[in-house]
């Protein structure tokens, strides 16, 4: 048989529903409730993750973040991973202040905090 895609999808969904209900009917009420909760949670996180990635793909080419210094991963310059740029180089602690040109990805840094303010201890 040659099915159209919507019909195939409908049949697949019906088969999945049928298998789910067969499995559910074989379990006790207690296990059934646990399964509902587990499947609901699992489905929620799968859909949420998929939606977030779709939004990122559609809305943003890149994301720029700060607040958690890259010094926590032993870096001293802005870091790019999966088009998420972390430009916090720890100026509130002992690192340099950094700025990034988002068009060219060129960055500039100040001297580290102790060189600029020798008596300042930062947030350490």
Note the topology:
Layout: H1 5-26, H2 29-59, E1 63-65, E2 79-81, E3 84-86, E4 98-100, E5 107-109, H3 113-116
Parallel strand pairs: 1-3
Antiparallel strand pairs: 2-3, 4-5
Explain the overall architecture.
With 124 residues, the protein is of the alpha+beta class. 46% of the residues lie in helices and 12% in strands. It contains 3 helices and 5 strands, in the order H-H-E-E-E-E-E-H. The strands form 2 sheets. A 3-stranded mixed β-sheet has the order 1-3-2, with no helix packed on it. A hairpin with a 6-residue loop joins strand 4 (98-100) and strand 5. The N and C termini lie far apart (70 Å).
Quick recap:
With 124 residues, this protein is an alpha+beta fold. It is 46% helix and 12% strand. The protein is elongated, with a radius of gyration of 25 Å.
Q: Into which percentage range does the β-strand content fall? A: 5-15%
* Count of distinct strands: 5
Mean pLDDT: 76
Rounded to an integer, what's the Rg over CA atoms?
25 Å
Instruction: Give the ordered list of helices and strands.
Output: HHEEEEEH
N-end to C-end Cα span:
70 Å
Describe the biggest sheet? 3 strands, mixed
Q: What is the general shape?
A: elongated
Number of helices: 3
Spatial sequence of strands, sheet with the most strands: 1-3-2
Structural class: alpha+beta
Assembly type: single chain
Show unreliable segments: none
């Amino acid at each position: 048989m040659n099915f159209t895609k919507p019909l195939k999808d409908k049949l697949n969904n019906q088969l999945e529903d049928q298998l789910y209900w067969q499995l559910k009917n074989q379990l006790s009420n207690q296990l059934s409730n646990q399964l509902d909760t587990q499947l609901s949670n699992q489905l929620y996180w799968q859909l949420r993750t998929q939606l977030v990635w779709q939004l990122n793909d559609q809305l943003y080419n890149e994301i720029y973040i700060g607040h958690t210094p890259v010094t926590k991963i032993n870096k001293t310059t802005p870091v790019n991973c999966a088009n998420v740029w972390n430009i916090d180089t720890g100026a509130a602690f002992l690192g340099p202040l950094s700025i990034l040109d988002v068009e060219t990805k060129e960055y500039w840094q100040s001297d580290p905090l102790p060189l600029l303010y020798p008596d300042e201890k930062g947030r350490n």
